[in-house]
Amino acid sequence: MGKVVFWLAVLGALFLVARAVSLIQRRDAARRRDAEAAPRALEMDRCAHCGVHFPRADAVRSGDSVYCCEEHRRAASQ
Ligand SMILES: [Zn+2]
């Protein structure tokens, strides 16, 4: 009888350890997913003409300068 109780305890302990490992792996996978899905900070540039800050993806470039729009690039070059 003592052996049965011992093995049941061993099996119970293994079950609890396996469950804890599974929960930790699931939590880590969820954190990785959240980190990948989180929006990145938008990189900003400053218009060389009007000084407004705008997303780098919308920049109009002319040499080393960046502008918020085509009108300001033209205005700065005149
Ligand atoms: Zn501008």
Jot down its keywords.
15% strand, 4 strands, alpha+beta, rod-shaped, binds zinc ion, two-stranded antiparallel ribbon, two-stranded antiparallel sheet, 56% helix, 78 residues
- Calculate the terminal CA-CA distance, rounded to whole Å: 97 Å
Strand content: 15-25%
Helix content: 55-70%
How does the helix and strand content classify structurally?
Answer: alpha+beta
Q: Which SSEs are present, and which pair or pack?
A:
Elements: H1 2-37, E1 44-46, E2 53-55, E3 60-62, E4 65-67, H2 70-77
Bound molecules: zinc ion.
Zinc ion binds at residues 47, 49-50, 52, 67-69, 72.
How would you sum up this structure, described in words?
- This protein is α+β, with helices and mostly antiparallel strands.
- It has 2 domains: 1-38; 44-77, no CATH class.
- It has 2 helices and 4 strands.
- The strands form 2 sheets. A two-stranded antiparallel sheet has the order 1-2. A two-stranded antiparallel sheet has the order 3-4.
- It starts with a helix and ends with a helix.
- The mean pLDDT is 92.
- The protein binds zinc ion.
Task: Give a concise summary.
The chain is α+β, with helices and mostly antiparallel strands and 78 residues long. It has helices at residues 2-37, 70-77, and strands at 44-46, 53-55, 60-62, 65-67.
